[in-house]
């Protein structure tokens, strides 16, 4: 989980790139843009100044988006915007998978396929 939290800047950079990529459907772009806005916004469901819990909402949003984009977006397109190595992305993916497991696959598929 700490790896995912430390990777938030790289995740935001990747999501921002994907949100403007012509390959992704419009619905996926809107979901990604909304995720970036939420992650960089100082207004959260759980305020960041609350120890431990403050970053939990950001962490969950990041995990859901990372898991979804790695399962439903071509890996080559994701790596085009990922600032690190493919191995670092895989480490982040493992952490994200654990946190995002409670989100139904069908929901992630609907968001990233644009239907």
How big is the Rg? Answer: 13 Å
What is the count of helical runs? 7
- Sheet-strand content, in percent, reads under 5%
Q: Compute the number of strand runs.
A: 0
Largest sheet data: none
State the end-to-end CA separation: 30 Å
User: Which structural class do the helices and strands define?
Assistant: mainly alpha
Entry keywords:
115 residues; mainly alpha
Layout of strands and helices, then pairs:
Blueprint: H1 2-6, H2 8-20, H3 26-40, H4 56-72, H5 75-81, H6 86-100, H7 105-113
Helix pairs in contact: 2-3, 2-4, 2-5, 3-4, 4-6, 4-7
Overview of the structural elements:
- The structure is a single chain.
- By secondary structure, this protein is an all-alpha fold.
- The protein has one domain.
- 70% of the residues lie in helices and 0% in strands.
- It has seven helices and no strands.
- The chain has helices spanning 2-6, 8-20, 26-40, 56-72, 75-81, 86-100, 105-113.
- α2 (8-20) runs antiparallel to α3 (26-40), α2 (8-20) crosses α5 and α4 (56-72) packs across α6 (86-100).
- The longest helix has 17 residues, at 56-72.
- The mean pLDDT is 85.
Structure, briefly:
With 115 residues, the chain is mainly α.
